[in-house]
Write a structure and sequence with these properties.
Blueprint lengths: L1 E11 L4 E12 L4 E5 L6 H8 L7 E6 L2 E2 L5 H8 L2 E4 L11 H11 L4 H14 L15 H13 L5 E5 L7 H18 L2 E6 L2 H7 L2 E6 L2 E7 H5 L5 H6 L11 E9 L7 H9 L4 E9 L4 E10 L6 H9 L4 E3 L2
Parallel strand pairs: 3-8, 3-9, 6-7, 7-8
Antiparallel strand pairs: 1-2, 1-4, 4-5, 9-10, 11-13, 11-14, 12-13
Helix pairs in contact: 3-4, 3-5, 4-5, 5-6
Organism: Catenuloplanes atrovinosus
Function: Part of the ABC transporter FtsEX involved in cellular division. Has ATPase activity.
Keywords: Amino-acid transport, ATP-binding, Cell membrane, Membrane, Nucleotide-binding, Translocase, Transport
Length: about 325
């Protein structure tokens, strides 16, 4: 649905240049929720603005639904942008308009008849849980309600793609949960493809099927969550399933094992102890219900050095269980 190839964007000032995007490539499948994670200044917002060509990249291509947006003249580009909805961090609502007026605005500018607009607005407000608030003004709404208006407005033109620019960062934890639940529900019910940027790992955990870590205008790592969890040494997996620093225990083997999907159902420790006649101790562990799967990471202690435990470590890896020796 979204294909980004070798995207580069440089901001040029009087005395210096800043490379915001440095050859970025990304593919988002139809119906997928893809999260791009990174700190402020990593290039996330520039990436998002380049997807709908609000920022034109210096080089590279952006294809949405099979259409290369970077090759379009401005008039055709305006038409294609209607297929892409946008949710903003600070809501970007018109304070002089009611809830209904804000949602209908995108339809007004495209010439949709009044009666059709009214029906569509009513459908959208019901969809986002704002029935009965059509005549309220933004100043009368909570932060979560304002963001629901922003989501309804982004959906007004029935887009195939929804872009989310830190949509929950201005909200409290409880409201964040409700907005994430709404986005996940819209993804399931409408088949929306959602590309979101965030600095919060919990957002990725809650609703994303795929994710990328962005740093200095590049992707440090990317992939489907299920694939990331199976990738030894994955930075994303370590952040999704955090265990903290490993203890220093000379002469013993400290290892982290990651389980997800079918492997999460196996009596792993019992199998390991029985097969290799070793006493297995659990030093720590975490289990998370991720959007794509239930997964966990265990930190185990085996007596003897890693060389002594080579058969056990080989068996774990051959069984498809990502295993990292920590000490």
């Amino acid at each position: 649905m979204i294909s980004i190839k070798d995207l580069r964007k440089v901001y040029r000032g009087r005395h210096r240049e800043v490379t915001a995007l440095d050859g970025v490539s990304l593919d988002v499948a139809e119906g997928e929720i893809y999260g791009v994670l990174g700190r402020s200044g990593a290039g996330k917002s520039t990436l998002l603005r380049c997807v709908n060509l609000l920022e034109r990249p210096d080089s590279g291509t952006v294809t949405v639904g099979g259409v290369d947006l970077t090759a379009l003249p401005e008039r055709r580009l305006r038409t294609e942008r209607r297929r892409i909805g946008m949710i903003h961090q600070h809501f970007a609502l018109l304070s002089s308009r009611t809830v209904a007026g804000n949602v209908s605005f995108a339809l007004e500018v495209t010439g949709v008849p009044r009666a059709t607009r009214a029906r569509r607005v009513a459908e959208l407000l019901e969809l986002v849980g704002l029935e009965g608030r059509a005549n309220a003004y933004p100043a009368q709404l909570s932060g979560g309600q304002k963001q629901r208006v922003g989501i309804a407005r982004a959906l007004a033109a029935d887009p195939a793609v929804l872009l989310s620019d830190e949509a929950t960062s201005a909200l409290d934890p409880e409201t964040t949960d409700s907005i994430l639940a709404l986005l996940a529900d819209l993804n399931r019910r409408l088949g929306l493809t959602i590309l979101l940027i965030t600095h919060e790992m919990d957002v990725v955990k809650r609703i994303c099927h795929s994710a990328a870590i962005m740093r200095d205008g590049r992707f440090a790592e990317s992939g489907r969550i299920a694939d990331v969890l199976a990738r030894p040494g994955s930075e994303l997996a370590a952040e999704l399933l955090r265990l903290g620093p490993a203890p220093d225990l000379p002469g013993q083997t400290v290892l982290d094992v990651t389980v997800s999907g079918d492997t999460a159902e196996r009596p792993l420790i019992a199998e390991l102890a029985r097969r290799f006649e070793v006493d297995v101790r659990i030093l720590g562990g975490t289990v998370e219900q991720l959007a794509a799967t239930r997964a966990g990471r265990l930190r185990l202690l085996l007596p003897g050095t890693p060389a002594d435990n080579t058969p056990a470590l080989t068996w774990l890896r051959d069984s498809g269980i990502p295993t990292e020796v920590r000490a």
